[in-house]
């Protein structure tokens, strides 16, 4: 009877274990990362009785955990990708809303500024119109400053996100390594795996992938080896490695991520850590935030450059040449903290940046490195070589790259590195330099006219000056004389109508409607509607003058009633300033808004697709590992009946044993 009792006992224990496991499944059904467990039974070793093998009951082979590593990897990959896209989307939506806002964006302020210029052109002598124009300029500056400040706040938020993500990654790495250690102690008993610890570890690995894409490989003693980036190990067995945040060596406002081994930290590029929240914000910063801030700065710098250039060609109410109207921010130059340090007698290399041609500006930053006796310049991102220059013995050199003049001084050392961001401060440092309405240079510096004694209909219909006029202006007044040509009288050929009186030594150009110049030589042929340029002065001649008619170009020091320069300033609204002379201020801003908007929608669509893919992967994983409460309820009944049946076997064994005892009495 002892064998029957023992058989019943094994069944009782097995049913009890199954009931406990089922209850464990039910109570943990809402625990993240929990995998369904099932008691796996097998027949106990049979007893050879001589007449044959007799069963001895059942035994528990293992508590099986239903987990598919392929499914787990699919979920981790989808989680990493989706978290990165969601992180990117959350950041870029801030810029999209900022730039596209019809009230707080740049467009209303820019339109108001140029409307103020147009109103002043119509009421030049009006002090209120001048004051309104100046106020609109201040409003434009405030708007640009505000937009840049908001982008700066977003950048600060990115830094905070980087710090918190690195902290989370390091925490998860330590916890996973600790679980590796605990799990490895059970490696000698593969039939008794620590299921709950395995679930905890898998869940931590999944949580880690919310912050950075992690590659998971099996290690020794049931441990996991986890690497990130370009193969940098994060967890190896019981050991974990740490990431660190540090200031960029060339830009102290920028946080970078480094990989720490002992006391040494190696900087990881933004692209080396894809996926997860960390990868998302790093990608956002390098592909959208940096570009948006530089583009906004480019618009500010381009406006200030062109406006100042035209304003300085005019005369103010005091008859003085116009002063710079807006501040033009110099480019940001960051010297690497790893550069060789200079001394008073032997200073370290210095790099300066300024804008010289807005039409050639790109949205790129630049890295300047002194190598093999030359300053070598590459664009960022992409690291495409764009120029190099060899300094003189004192370290001085100048190089113009994409509309940016880089000047070098002092003595460079091998490996000295600089980060140049030509327009990043353009919007932040944009401000109005004039605070007196009388200093607005509305008048042009020269006048064109014809003498009362002229008998023809010819006239100077337009006069303009350019920057060459400020450098070396020709002596005024200048008198041009029309010389009537003669018809052909064989054998003498015909002679053309000509203009004489151009300043000696000045090169004369004929300018077409597109502004293209063609050098011409004396005698200068007269053509109705033609524009002639010399010494920074351009005059357009129209009509039909008679021989001997004279035309004067004189100084306009009084500037009374003259609105030509303020009108020219107003024309900057539609002037093609950027992209090789193909884009206006407004179209450049519209393109910037469009790029951010399109990228936002692209990321939004990808994030939605990523969430769908993640849900699909999680569903497939749940089919394998998830707890089905209906199924578990059925199992409870099944195992309860098994428990009762096993109890009955033991009860019968006891009854038989009691009967045998009673016979012996």
Automatic annotation (TrEMBL):
It comes from the Bacteria. Residues 624-662 form the Flagellar basal-body/hook protein C-terminal domain. SUPFAM superfamilies: Phase 1 flagellin. One of its GO terms (molecular function) is structural molecule activity. The keyword Zinc does not apply. It is found in: Bacterial flagellum; Secreted. Residues 93-326 form the Flagellar hook-associated protein FlgK helical domain. Its main location: other. One of its GO terms (biological process) is bacterial-type flagellum assembly. Pfam families: Flg_bbr_C (PF06429), flgK_1st_1 (PF21158), FlgK_D1 (PF22638). Residues 339-422 form the Flagellar hook-associated protein 1 D2-like domain. One of its GO terms (cellular component) is extracellular region. Keywords: Bacterial flagellum, Cell projection, Cilium, Flagellum, Secreted. Belongs to the flagella basal body rod proteins family. This is Flagellar hook-associated protein 1.
